[in-house]
Design goal:
It is built from five helices and 31 strands. By secondary structure, the chain is α/β, with parallel strands linked by helices. The strands form eight sheets. Strands 1, 2, 3, 4, 6, 7, 9 and 11 form an eight-stranded mixed sheet that branches. The chain has a six-stranded mixed sheet with strand order 13-14-15-17-19-21, with no helix packed on it. A four-stranded parallel sheet has the order 5-8-10-12, with no helix packed on it.
Length: 399
């Protein structure tokens, strides 16, 4: 491709001891902006418009070694990006929020990619890394670091990660609104900040027992997320973990959890009745039962929200401090709808669930409801449970 390098007149007046602002125009309509330091070129951005960005290996006889932070962030035109072998580092958010970006090719020399470098690029579906690159690799839409860290997912809407992945990096699935499911292998131990934030179509997630840490905002704004299983190795639900997961209704807090961070379940009205075990000794600000009130431009309580826990627990203290209704203990067996009574309504709900499952449909119950509905403890929800719930109702009515 024919290129012609130009140096801005103003830059010529700057001392060679300091990085100088320069611009390089190619014949595709883009003008790259860059600085020079220690005889190496740092790409800082661009002007103009074109769908193809091919970063040159050298400018002014010096190697191009870095793409700076935010260099192309928010660019609405670039669809194809080619990074040469000379580039060693790509800064944080360098290509973030580029809606047209669909294809990225990385050279053999890239040794460092900053956080969120390619996040919020909804069209990105193809990543190719030079096979001679010792740090990064690509396969099945996954950009991986050192073979065991998922830096970016750009695969199909039903995500299934390879069993070699141990860490899911910040923003790996960020903004992937088309992803409907994500199967995480038992090899995963850490899921970093905002890893799945903005996955608007994700409906359920099972966090493996091997995961020891979730990052802040991990599932923020996953508005279709209904069911979550938290693994047995976690000790905390971090800040903003399920912030604005407005459909979330099926989640249980295991006994291994000791703290719930600020805004962890903010605007999650459907988790009303959630039980926090006595192991949870710390609640952050607005961690659960709170929402944003547009009228007052402030945080407010969710109407009719209920927190369950043990008497004298941190959960009870939090509920009292935030004027949230508190009930002692877990929802009892047979009380399927959680109204505090065991009656014919609960038996009817069990029969309706049994009919759904018998016809091959999906369960309409939350994890708590399934536990309460399995009255005889055989692992199934069926007519036998309904019958025993009715018998219990009759016995209670006769008292």
């Amino acid at each position: 491709m024919k290129r012609a390098a130009t140096v801005l007149a103003a830059a010529m007046a700057i001392s060679a001891a300091f990085p100088a602002d320069r611009a390089y125009a190619d014949d595709n309509g883009l003008t790259l902006e860059y600085t020079v330091k220690d005889k190496e070129v740092y790409i800082t951005g661009c002007t103009g418009s074109d769908a193809i960005l091919i970063i040159p290996a050298e400018l002014e006889g010096m190697p191009v070694t870095s793409v700076s932070e935010n260099a192309f962030a928010g660019n609405t035109d670039i669809a194809i990006c080619v990074v040469p072998d000379t580039v060693k580092s790509i800064g944080a958010r360098a290509f973030s929020a580029c809606p047209a970006l669909s294809t990225v090719t990385l050279g053999s020399g890239v040794a460092e990619i900053g956080d969120y470098a390619f996040t919020a690029c909804p069209s990105l579906s193809y990543i190719d890394v030079n096979k001679n690159n010792p740090t990064y690799s690509s396969a099945n839409g996954c950009l991986c670091e050192n073979g065991d860290t998922l830096l970016l997912y750009a695969g199909q809407k039903e995500a299934k990660l390879d069993g070699s992945i141990k860490t899911i990096r910040k923003g790996a699935f960020f903004g992937r609104s088309d992803v409907v499911s994500a199967e995480l292998p038992d090899s995963v131990t850490v899921i970093e900040d905002n890893a799945f934030s903005g996955c608007l179509s994700l409906t359920e997630i099972d966090v493996p027992d091997t995961v020891t840490k979730l990052g802040a905002g991990c599932f923020m704004s996953c508005t279709s997320l209904k069911r979550v299983h938290l693994g047995s190795s976690l000790t905390a639900v971090p800040d903003s973990c399920f912030y604005s997961c407005t459909a979330l209704s099926d989640i249980s807090i295991p006994d291994n959890i000791t703290s719930v961070g600020s805004d962890a379940f903010y605007s999650c009205a459907a988790v009303s009745g959630i039980y926090f075990p006595a192991s949870v000794t710390a609640f952050g600000k607005d961690s659960v039962g709170r929402r944003y009130d547009i009228r007052s431009d402030s945080s407010a309580g969710i109407a009719d929200f209920v927190i369950r826990g043990e008497a004298g627990s941190a959960a009870e203290k939090y509920a009292k401090e935030n004027n949230i209704a508190f009930k002692t203990g877990r929802q009892q067996k047979g009380d399927v709808n959680g109204d505090g009574y065991i009656d014919a309504v609960d038996a009817s709900d069990v029969l309706a669930e049994y009919a759904r499952l018998s016809s091959g449909g999906d369960s309409g119950f939350t994890e708590t409801q399934r536990s309460c509905a399995d009255y005889n403890g055989d692992g199934f929800t069926d007519a036998v449970d309904a019958s025993e719930i009715l018998a219990k109702y009759a016995a209670l009515s006769a008292e």
